């Protein structure tokens, strides 16, 4: 099912205009507490009347489908950071926390939002977004891990799904829209928000607020356990919340978005400290990768490259940094953006000499070689790196990008396909595969990978159509045809299953079928 241009506009109105006022969250609570009448077409999907959380919860497969559509809504309105190195870091940190959470099950997808907003959110299907501003605001890696552990707990305890228990059926686009708006605390306009609030009973609004507070306390409790289980400082959660709260009192009206979507009280901080006491304080050094992503985000925070260069020159000259290697990495990135490639290359050489296996430095060095016209050296170094560190998928993506730039798109397809095998369901990778296959003139794979991208984004029907087109291509090798046919059969069965349920893929299956 496609999101129409009107629905896209509504998503942008809900999400894109702001996260700057507490009224947005209240308006959304009002919308969620008010009956919604929406025309539903034959192919529209709807959220079931869940009733009690103990007897009719959405199935995990249905929630995963909703998660894909939610993520498409997020991508349409927010700058999701498709940088492989940043994604790899946040995924790695998230994976250690999921492993330490004894209640965790199912899949999780961690990603970075490239905005200087101090916030994070958990969406349906295990999609967890972390804003760049939050990573910069965290003074230690344990503080960042604390927020992520809290969001993971929201997923494992299915807080988001339970918040829709009292709702009657809504169309899927409306559901995805409201979920995205609720999570991001967005608003349509102050006037519309005030009008909505005026039409809602105070009791219903208060019930929703109280439920949110209970969720936050539960997420804190489980998050601290996860934090300690992963070897991080369990006091980091209370410490980070308290520091944000103090900064809020200083700036009064300019509260970080995290505090608006996750209200912090003195009692909540006290409870967190008490829970942390049972584990004891733990000293844990920040990883180099934590410092490197902070340096990258700080470099990107400057509008002009010259400003970024000046910042890092000042901090390096005055010694105002926590980690010199990371600071020099930020400086090299700034010089690269300023197109001072020779200067950036000198910094890169120094970084590689001391950390020859660091993926961030290998990728930067190759990019600079390409910019300096040394494509042969760049390709040779990246090929060697992918052989030495096969588990470092960002290196293979960088190698594929270099191959495309060097006029070898067919080899780029091979590299990206290898990455996609171990990272299925990654929309960014499939988009890169579409671009590489297009440059290689391989129309079959263009259709095939476009279909995979559409499927990942929840667009089942057009995904099937593109696979059918791929299957009809002439001179299609038997092995490829067999693979496409298997995939096509599975998707068609999924489509038939949805139709058997009356076009409502989110409707819970009978108890015995789960």
- The neighbouring-strand order within the major sheet is 1-2-4-3
* Alpha-carbon Rg, integer: 24 Å
Low-confidence stretches: 1-56, 186-206, 503-514
Secondary-structure element series: HHHEHEEEHHHHHHHHHHHHHHHHHHHHH
Please describe the biggest sheet, giving its number of strands, its sense, and whether it closes into a barrel: 4 strands, mixed
Helix/strand-derived category reads mainly alpha
Helix content: 55-70%
Coarse shape:
flat
Strand element count: 4
Helical run tally? 25
- SS strand fraction: under 5%
Average residue pLDDT = 80
State the end-to-end distance.
24 Å
Plain-language structure description:
- The chain has about 525 residues and is mainly α.
- It has a domain at about 50-190 and about 200-275.
- The chain contains 25 helices and 4 strands.
- Strands 1-2-4-3 form a 4-stranded mixed sheet, sandwiched between helices.
- Strand 3 (about 120-125) and strand 4 (about 125-130) form a beta hairpin.
């Amino acid at each position: 099912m496609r999101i129409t241009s009107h629905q896209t506009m509504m998503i942008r109105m809900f999400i894109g205009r702001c996260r700057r006022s507490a009224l947005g969250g209240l308006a959304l609570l009002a919308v969620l507490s008010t009956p919604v009448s929406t025309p539903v077409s034959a192919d529209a999907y709807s959220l079931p009347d869940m009733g009690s959380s103990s007897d009719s919860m959405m199935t995990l497969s249905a929630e995963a489908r909703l998660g894909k559509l939610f993520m498409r809504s997020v991508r349409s309105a927010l700058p999701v950071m498709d940088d492989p190195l940043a994604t790899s870091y946040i995924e790695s940190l998230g994976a250690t926390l999921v492993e330490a959470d004894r209640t965790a099950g199912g899949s999780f997808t961690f990603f970075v939002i490239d905005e200087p907003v101090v916030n994070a959110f958990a969406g349906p299907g295990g999609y967890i977004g972390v804003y760049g501003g939050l990573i910069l605001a965290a003074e230690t890696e344990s503080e960042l891990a604390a927020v992520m552990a809290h969001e993971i707990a929201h997923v494992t305890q299915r807080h988001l799904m339970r918040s829709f228990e009292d709702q009657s059926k809504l169309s899927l686009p409306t559901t995805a829209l409201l979920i995205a708006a609720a999570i991001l605390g967005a608003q349509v306009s102050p006037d519309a928000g005030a009008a909505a609030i005026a039409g809602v009973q105070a009791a219903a609004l208060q019930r929703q607020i109280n439920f949110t507070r209970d969720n936050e306390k539960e997420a804190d409790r489980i998050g601290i356990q996860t934090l300690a289980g992963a070897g991080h400082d369990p006091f980091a959660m209370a410490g980070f919340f308290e520091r944000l709260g103090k900064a809020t009192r200083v700036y009064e009206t300019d509260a970080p978005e995290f505090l608006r979507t996750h209200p912090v009280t003195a009692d909540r901080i006290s409870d967190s400290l008490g829970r942390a006491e049972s584990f004891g304080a733990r000293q844990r050094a920040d990883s180099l990768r934590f410092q490197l992503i902070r340096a990258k985000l700080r470099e990107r925070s400057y509008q002009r490259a010259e400003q970024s260069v000046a910042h890092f020159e000042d901090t390096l000259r005055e010694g105002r940094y926590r980690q010199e290697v990371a600071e020099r990495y930020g400086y090299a990135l700034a010089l690269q953006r300023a197109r001072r490639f020779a200067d950036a290359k000198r910094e890169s050489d120094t970084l590689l000499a001391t950390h020859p296996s660091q993926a961030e430095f290998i990728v930067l060095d190759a990019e600079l070689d390409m910019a300096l016209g040394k494509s042969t050296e760049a390709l040779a170094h990246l090929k060697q790196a992918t052989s030495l560190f096969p588990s470092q998928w960002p290196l293979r993506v960088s190698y594929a990008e270099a191959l495309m730039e060097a006029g070898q798109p067919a080899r780029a397809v091979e590299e990206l396909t290898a990455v996609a095998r171990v990272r299925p369901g990654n929309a960014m990778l499939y988009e890169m595969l579409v671009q590489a296959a297009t440059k290689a003139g391989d129309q079959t794979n263009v259709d095939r990978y476009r279909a995979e991208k559409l499927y990942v984004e929840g667009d089942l029907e057009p995904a099937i159509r593109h696979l059918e087109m791929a299957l009809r291509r002439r001179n299609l090798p038997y092995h490829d045809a067999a693979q496409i046919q298997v995939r096509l059969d599975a998707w068609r069965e999924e489509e038939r299953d949805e139709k058997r349920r009356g076009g409502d893929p989110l409707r819970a299956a009978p108890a015995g079928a789960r």
